[in-house]
Amino acid sequence: MKSRKEDLRNYLRNNNYSWIDDPSNYDEKYQRVKVRKLLQQLKASDLIASSFVKTADHMARASKLSKQTAISNSKTLLSFNEVGQIIFEGEKFSELFEDTQYRVLAGIMSWFSGSFYKPRFSQLQNICRKIVNTGNLPGATLSGTVFKKKNGIVSVTRELASVTEISLIKNEKFIWDNRWLITFKSKPQSKLYIKPYGLLSSDEHNFCIDGDFDSVALATIPVVVKNKAVKFVPLSNLKYNVEVKLLNEDKEFYKFF
């Protein structure tokens, strides 16, 4: 956003809106806070020349181009399956510019986690090197996301440990675990709960799933239960008055890049 903070606050005041300041913006344990204070001191001392502003503008344009490049490459590189797993060819990924590789991986992780905050660069760099330089990768986890590589194919799934174990369903329509849109055809009349498939007990597997999916990816799909009885599982023979949609369209996925 090109609008200044005070301009935004004035707009909110004039339109009777309230806002919340992020406390971390004032905590000096974060590098960004220290940098902001340093810039304020430089500005007060007339040490920030117009060239600084021009450099910032150049960097903003370069960042925008880098983002669009990553999105464009991702559209031909990445594919999704029905259980929300992302798959791509390791060789094609290794041919991308290094910056594009980082942006693609960070975007994938942000989509899985639902967070716009990116992982530390050193951690991102480590995952990227493993994907590019390792023949087979049994599993590497970062930001609630699991990366695997086998026979040149990289698969990315949600980490089961990062999914909420079970929660009460309160609305007819809601987003579950950042990626799944759950829509009931009518308001639930009794207490229903939602949990990941991977946390079902053996006694609760009274259904069949159509398809051969990676067990790690399958473990993180949503399941609707009532009184410990499974009522609905996507891709199964169970029918219920609910629809489940994976939020992986362009506007839903690439906003995290």
Description of the structure:
Strand 4 (145-150) and strand 5 form a beta hairpin. The protein folds into 3 domains: 5-44, no CATH class; 70-160, Uridine Diphospho-n-acetylenolpyruvylglucosamine Reductase, domain 3 (2-Layer Sandwich), CATH 3.30.465; 162-253, no CATH class. The protein has helices at 5-14, 31-44, 50-77, 90-94, 98-113, 121-133, 215-218, 250-253, and strands spanning 79-80, 86-89, 137-142, 145-150, 153-158, 167-168, 173-176, 180-184, 193-196, 222-226, 229-232, 242-246. Helices cover 37% and strands 21% of the residues.
Structural class: alpha+beta
Tally of alpha and pi helices: 8
Biggest beta sheet summary: 5 strands, antiparallel
Q: Helix and strand string, N-terminal first? A: HHHEEHHHEEEEEEEHEEEH
Quick structural gist:
With 257 residues, this protein is α+β, with helices and mostly antiparallel strands. It folds into 3 domains: 5-44, no CATH class; 70-160, Uridine Diphospho-n-acetylenolpyruvylglucosamine Reductase, domain 3, CATH 3.30.465; 162-253, no CATH class.
Features:
37% helix; globular; four-stranded antiparallel sheet; single chain; 257 residues; alpha+beta; 3 domains; Uridine Diphospho-n-acetylenolpyruvylglucosamine Reductase, domain 3; 12 strands; 8 helices
Topology:
Elements (H helix, E strand, L loop, with lengths): L4 H10 L16 H14 L5 H28 L1 E2 L5 E4 H5 L3 H16 L7 H13 L3 E6 L2 E6 L2 E6 L8 E2 L4 E4 L3 E5 L8 E4 L18 H4 L3 E5 L2 E4 L9 E5 L3 H4 L4
Antiparallel strand pairs: 1-2, 2-5, 3-4, 4-5, 6-9, 7-8, 8-12, 9-10, 10-11
Helix pairs in contact: 3-5
